[in-house]
Structures are given as structure tokens and as C-alpha cells.
């Protein structure tokens, strides 16, 4: 069997693409009251982003079980595991420690991104695996996308950001301007402030402009994510389709409960990977 690709549920790869390219997932966790809910496995309240819940990384036991099964199913050809940035979650560090105990046939890739920023790398690795490439080549297919991947996000509420602790340098600006709509981006694996904008409409426009500037006339893979804001996501996807004719239509998916807890209601995000 070809090399097997594993990711985690933060990657937001749509189920039909996971099935098509045989990508496996390890769940991240949501801790709500006394319950430990596994993203993608257990029923998570749709309004989880409005509740006082916390998140947790995939456990070493879950990672080990997933890698061991994948290694067995690959008939020893190997496993490439592409995970959420180590700057955003403890999952990647746990994965590295787990892989070290399983040997060199398990390769862990720190995507330095999240959502479909991670997902695009997992898809690239899975396509390489399906083409019969060896472990080194499949790992390279993932890592080659790190520098070509960009992610931006508009956050409509600051409450979740204050609680999350995932935003670099947040104390310097989170308390300013009640109407502040931050445009965030992922820089070297960390979520940081890109711009401070007064209106949500202006922030979304700035995000679309930034994405279009990066892509230019070149082909790129695009994804638009949202937290309880499907109409906003469709508007962003339509704007990108109009301005980036060289690109395929964007994948549009919810951001998922784990990431939603950190960014809050109404958030919109765009992830892109420039063509190699």
C-alpha cells in the first residue's frame, strides 16, 4: 500500500477529499464542563464558540494508535503526519515524541499553519502518495508547501481572543478601540495582528485585497472558512472567484469547533497555497 497520510481535525479537509485521497484524521479535543469531546467524533454543541469551553491537543495515545495502524496498513512504506502549527497547539510536539518512539518510517510535519493551510499540505502529500512516491518524496510534497501557504482571518469579537492566549503580542492591542475589527494572519506558525480596522466590512475587504495581492495572476488553491457565518464566507468566496480567475473556486467550510473557540462568532478566514 502507498505511504499513508495522517492529519488532525483542525485541518478542515472536507470529508469527500479525505475519502478520495485516503487521508486519516486524529481528533483534537474540546473540554466543556466535565466532558472531553473529540472533534469529529463526539457531538459538539453548534454554539460551542459561545460557551466557556477550552481546547486540548490530540493525546499521545490517539496519535500512537493512528500512526501504528497507518504504518501497518502501508505495509511498512511509511506514514507522513501533517499537523497544526506547534505555535498554536501542543499536538505537533506530542506527535514528534510519538513518532520518535515508532522509528523513521513515521515523519511528522509541522505545517506552521492551521485549517486548510494545514489541509493543503496534507492533500499535497496524499496526492504524492497516491502517485506511488516514496516516503521522502511524500514528506517533501508536504513541506514544500510551508513557504507557499498563507492564512488570514477577520475576527468580529474580542472576547474569545482574550481567553485564547493564542494571539502573539495580543496584550498590546486587545484592549483598545471597542469597535476594533482585527485582521490577523499566521506568521511563522503563530497568529498575529496584521491590521487594525474600524469596521467588519473594511476588515473583510482588506483580507480579500491582501489575498489577491499575494496570489496575483498565478494559480493557487483557496479555502474560505467561517464561524456561524456561511453567508459571509460565500461572499468572500465570490469576491475571490471574481478577482482571481486563474484559481479554482475556493473550498468553503466551517472553521470547526476547536478553532472557533479561539476566534469567536462571525469570524471569516482565507487560507491559500500558491502553486509550486
UniProtKB/TrEMBL annotation:
Family matches, as InterPro entries: DegV, DegV_C, DegV_domain_contain
Pfam families according to UniProt: DegV
Keyword Glycoprotein: no
Xref: PROSITE patterns: DEGV
GO molecular function, one term: lipid binding
UniProt keywords, alphabetically: Lipid-binding
Domain of life where this protein originates: Bacteria
Protein name, UniProt field: Fatty acid-binding protein DegV
Amino acid at each position: 500500500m502507498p505511504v499513508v497520510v495522517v492529519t488532525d481535525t483542525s485541518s478542515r479537509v472536507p470529508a469527500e477529499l479525505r475519502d478520495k485521497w485516503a487521508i486519516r484524521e486524529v481528533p483534537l479535543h474540546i473540554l466543556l464542563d466535565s466532558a472531553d469531546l473529540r472533534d469529529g467524533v463526539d457531538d459538539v454543541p453548534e454554539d460551542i464558540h459561545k460557551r466557556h469551553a477550552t481546547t486540548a491537543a490530540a493525546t499521545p495515545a490517539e496519535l500512537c494508535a493512528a500512526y501504528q495502524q497507518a504504518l501497518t496498513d502501508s505495509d511498512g512504506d511509511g506514514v507522513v503526519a501533517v499537523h497544526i502549527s506547534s505555535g498554536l497547539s501542543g499536538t505537533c510536539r506530542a506527535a514528534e515524541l510519538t513518532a520518535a518512539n515508532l522509528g523513521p518510517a513515521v515523519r511528522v510535519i509541522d505545517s506552521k499553519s492551521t485549517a486548510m493551510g494545514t489541509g493543503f499540505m496534507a492533500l499535497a502529500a496524499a496526492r504524492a502518495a497516491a502517485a506511488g512516491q516514496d516516503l521522502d518524496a511524500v514528506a517533501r510534497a508536504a513541506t514544500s508547501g510551508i513557504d507557499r501557504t498563507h492564512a488570514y482571518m477577520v475576527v468580529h469579537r474580542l472576547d474569545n481572543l482574550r481567553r485564547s492566549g493564542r494571539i502573539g503580542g495580543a496584550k498590546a492591542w486587545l484592549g483598545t478601540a471597542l469597535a476594533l475589527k482585527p485582521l490577523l494572519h499566521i506568521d511563522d506558525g503563530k497568529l498575529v495582528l496584521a491590521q487594525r480596522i474600524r469596521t467588519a466590512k473594511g476588515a473583510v475587504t482588506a483580507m480579500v485585497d491582501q489575498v489577491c495581492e499575494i496570489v496575483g495572476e498565478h494559480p493557487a488553491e483557496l479555502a474560505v472558512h467561517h464561524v456561524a457565518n456561511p453567508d459571509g464566507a460565500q461572499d468572500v468566496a465570490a469576491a475571490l472567484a471574481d478577482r482571481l480567475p486563474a484559481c479554482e473556486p475556493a473550498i468553503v467550510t466551517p472553521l470547526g469547533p476547536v478553532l472557533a473557540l479561539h476566534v469567536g462568532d462571525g469570524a471569516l478566514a482565507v487560507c491559500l497555497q500558491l502553486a509550486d
